[in-house]
Design brief:
Pfam families: Methyltransf_25 (PF13649). Residues 48-146 form the Methyltransferase domain. InterPro entries: Methyltransf_25, SAM-dependent_MTases_sf. Keywords: Methyltransferase, Transferase. It comes from Halopseudomonas bauzanensis. This protein is of the alpha/beta class. The protein has one domain (3-154, 195-230): 3-Layer(aba) Sandwich (Rossmann fold), CATH 3.40.50. Helices cover 44% and strands 22% of the residues. It has a 7-stranded mixed sheet, with helices on both faces. A hairpin with a 2-residue loop joins β6 (211-220) and β7 (223-230). The protein is globular and about 45 Å long. 38% of the residues are buried.
């Protein structure tokens, strides 16, 4: 799927996105709980880059726990970013946020950040070299030893384990009131439009993009998340 098609899909879903996935919020909440602990030693005035921020879940969670932190929210879908902006205004944290509608490649030059988040984004980049470049664009925008928390769908798709996980994943979404038609679209997307790779392969792509020791800190069904540290020798863009 071309990036413009992915963007159009999220444009269409933006208004109802949070409501649609509300019944799976416990997965998100657990990820955020761990994220908060992994970022706990960042400076009191840390600056955080949120890549593919969507409607702003991780940004709002981190902002609520850390009143001195500042955020740069990057999101190609204008309607999704609008929802994010509205939510930050409602939560009283918008003054600490900079919003960029677009991709990392179009983000103006910024000071290097203390950390970054990138949840369920790189999986939409099917070509491994481009996926590595995407992570390098994040690394360039981080300070030395800057942290990256990232997540993607991951599994060995040819394995019997994947069949079990995918079946359970679809049952979970069905229980969350995702329609049968939408489930079938999701199943097709996983096969054709999402780069579902083995966890070790995703970790190696992160590492090739300029990060050290990607450590898996979370798994819920098909979602895997890693904490990585920016490698030495990466310079600002």
């Amino acid at each position: 799927m071309h990036p413009s098609e992915i963007k159009a899909l999220f444009d269409q879903q933006a208004a109802n996105y949070d409501t649609q996935w509300a019944k799976t919020a416990s997965i998100r909440d657990c990820l955020h709980l761990l994220l908060g602990s992994l970022f706990a030693e960042l400076p009191a005035d840390a600056s955080i880059l949120c890549v593919g921020v969507g409607t702003g879940d991780e940004l709002i969670y981190l902002a609520s726990k850390n009143p001195g932190w500042r955020f740069i929210a990057v999101e190609p879908s204008g309607p999704m970013l609008d929802v994010c902006r509205q939510r930050t205004e409602k939560e009283g944290v918008a003054s600490r946020c900079t919003f960029h509608e677009g991709y990392l490649s179009s983000l103006p030059v910024i000071e290097q950040q203390d950390a970054a988040t990138c949840f369920l984004v790189s999986q939409f980049i099917l070509e491994e070299g481009e996926r590595s470049t995407f992570f390098s664009e994040i690394a360039e925008r981080l300070k030395p030893n800057g942290l990256l928390a990232s997540s993607d769908l991951a599994s060995e798709v040819e394995s019997s384990e994947y069949a079990v996980l995918l079946h359970g994943w679809m049952k979970m979404m069905s229980a969350a009131d995702i329609s049968p038609e939408a489930l079938e679209r999701i199943r097709r997307a996983y096969a054709n439009d999402v780069g579902v790779l083995p966890p070790a392969k995703v970790a190696s792509i992160i590492e090739s993009g300029g990060f050290e020791l990607p450590v898996q800190f979370f798994q819920a069904g098909l979602i895997h998340a890693w904490l990585s540290k920016r490698s030495a020798g990466i310079s600002a863009p």
